[in-house]
């Protein structure tokens, strides 16, 4: 029996191959589209969700999984492990941490003997996924729960995420700017460059995707220098652009690993289609 199982949520933007390889259980966040609920990863693919979003963006919303839904993920891995680490979306972006914490209380009765810890990633998108991935790799190496937590905390302290939006039109959904401002910015074709660290921060505005990509890559160079790096590229219904970005990253950085994933529609409903982003960290200080 493996000592520790790792659970995270679908906003971590892990691709299926990595989740399956390291046996990471995913808590699906709920998408509400035209009044119907869909579980991210389960009932609908990101591409299908973005197609529906493009048809009717105003009908699109999200909801946090319930403690019972989080408990289901704990049940799934409890038969193969004696402990669980659940890595959640930042508490500044969602109440999912609270739902997972409440699920742990429910599990005390239903899953006696299983030690469960809940970690606030203070992140989202593949930067959250990289924290969960580090935990899962430590678990695969046979580390106990404290060792798995240390591995996750180490990456948590290093990982960064940058997100380039193709439009500012939908950002008002995040509650960070008024709708009239996002409408005006959309008319001016302004493209925000964001960072994710605890919460979402505006880094700068650009007038073209090319300019935004160059700025994003320069920010990565400033952070990483020549050190080997773990890098993930993500996209919201922009596979061709993401593949081009991945090629540039592979050519310009010393990649210890490089993977591609789809940007969760749970975040994408405020970012819009055409979004591309990167998450990255180096093992070296």
Question: What does this molecule look like?
Answer:
- This protein has two domains: 2-29 and 64-156, Dihydroxyacetone kinase, domain 1 (Rossmann fold, 3-Layer(aba) Sandwich), CATH 3.40.50; 160-281, Hypothetical Protein Tm841, Chain: A,domain 3.
- Helix 5 packs antiparallel against helix 6 (145-156).
- The strands form three sheets. The protein has a six-stranded mixed beta sheet, sandwiched between helices. A four-stranded parallel beta sheet has the order 2-1-6-7, with helices on both faces.
- It has 285 residues and is of the alpha/beta class.
- Strand 9 (191-197) and strand 10 form a beta hairpin.
- It is built from ten helices and 13 strands.
- The two termini are 34 Å apart.
- 49% of the residues are buried.
Highlighted features:
285 residues, alpha/beta, Rossmann fold, Hypothetical Protein Tm841, Chain: A,domain 3, 2 domains, six-stranded mixed sheet, four-stranded parallel sheet, 27% strand
